[in-house]
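Figure-free illustration: sequence to structure, shown twice.
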Amino acid sequence: MPWPRSHGIFFCFYWTNMIFVVFAISLLFISIGYLVNKGNAAQLLSGYNRLSEEERKKIDITSYLELFRRFHWFLGIGIFIGSGVLYFSLGEQWTAFFMTSFTMVAYCFFIWYGLRFYKGVNVRSTKIALMIFIILTVFTTGFFIYLLAKYPL
């Protein structure tokens, strides 16, 4: 890739649309962590919004939302740093692979870890969804690895 002659303060980097996608997705995940709070959790949190008032009282929503906020902050920062390093060292294909796989693996962990906050509530459908998500994560990651091996950079 040829270096551009002048792009303002970013003259030393070759920028494409991917770096803006990385920034936007990172910002989106960080924002999600701060937009959901105790006041709007009943409308925005999947699963929690389908529970009755009795079942909602069994959930420690304050601790869950703290985990939710920290997780999305970690996810946004992790995607930004990891994708930035991969973008400038290995290219856009590896950046896309990392962003997809990292997000899917992180959400598998988050769903599994978040089950501990649902004491006394039937979480069978959540466990089924988690298993499906794990299978999709393995398939997607395997597919990316296959494509990157078949079509090297």
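We now fold a second protein in the same way, so the two outputs can be compared directly.
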Amino acid sequence: MALFTDWVDVANDILSKCHFNLRLRKVTDCNANVFVALYEAILGEKVPDYIATPGSQDDVHNVQSVIDSLALDYLQISLSHITGERHLLLTHYSPVN
């Protein structure tokens, strides 16, 4: 359980440095809105293909759009082991990757 607590601390540190008035208490608090907000704050651009009216499938789509853009536009490496659906279903691997 300490691993997830460490990741919550890292996430809160990043949120603080991006001037977000948001604190995560647990890994499951990191939802699609957090991913989108961090992407836009750090990269200074809108998430490609963002769907503004969130629902459960739209949240999966928005997280996947963040992951795909990072992989293709910035990192130029495969992030196929991380999916929006896996993250939002809260597997033990996806949120910390």
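Summary for the second example: Helices lie at 2-17, 32-43, 56-75, 84-89.
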